[in-house]
Amino acid sequence: MDKSEDIKEMIQREIRSIPALDERVVFKDVMEGVFLSLYEKNKEMYQVLEKRVMDDLAYDINRYRICAGLVEKDCLDVSHEIKYQGIVKIEKLVSEYNIWELHKIPYGKFKIKIYESSNHTYSGYTNLHIADGLGDYCCAVGHGKTEKTALEDTISEFFKMLERKKIWEEQDFQYADSYDF
Fold it and tell me: What does the pLDDT look like over 98-124, one tens digit per residue?
């Protein structure tokens, strides 16, 4: 049963629920004369529009997705839509910060990069790695639902790592290679 048949059936149910005969006639005329004809005209117009769009576009239907809407160019980010076999995650670098700290780290400054993942969460990473108890160097990592909260969490995690010792030596720190960061 198509939608117009469903609508006609709904109209018939409503007509049967009206007790007065003269009210039934008016309701039937209005519903079938106005509402149903508007529905049919609207359906016809969308079919014509769809055919025109399909005829105007030469494309492989399995390769593209057609969406209707309006988006400012500055807000359009197609990186979340990119899918390649073997690629499990794409992150977009959204910001980089210089952080100045003059009391615990020997170099005075480090960087934090914030990335947005395809699920619209944010992660921050420091370029300054800190030696753990075994001598391995680790960067601080933070997460958040916004760029700002990821930055705040990354800074917080960095300073939590610095709480492990009271006195830090230059050899306790190591910068990430510039081509890696």
Answer: 999 888 888 889 999 999 988 889 999
